[in-house]
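Q: What structure does this chain adopt?
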Amino acid sequence: MDIENTLNRVLDKRKKLDLNDDYGIQKSWDEIIEILGENEERTLEYLERCSKEDLYWISEVFEDISEVLQSKELIKCLRRLDKKYPELEMKQDIDLAESYIED
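A:
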């Protein structure tokens, strides 16, 4: 699966959804989680190179991706990206995502 092209399609749909479209938003989130929850290594590589805007939209489901992957490396990656893009204000999302990792 080409993670980049697949996610681009999903994120494009998500960005166009009306805030009141709960079903559409949830469906987009589920697709993002499924794609990024499939393979930790590919997910980390993708996140490191994705655009700031795409990262913003993906941050909506950090905790769900974390729950699926159970990866401390994911959290480290997200913290690096938070330093790179502090204007996205992702710290709370990352802290929540970290809380979903079982020890």
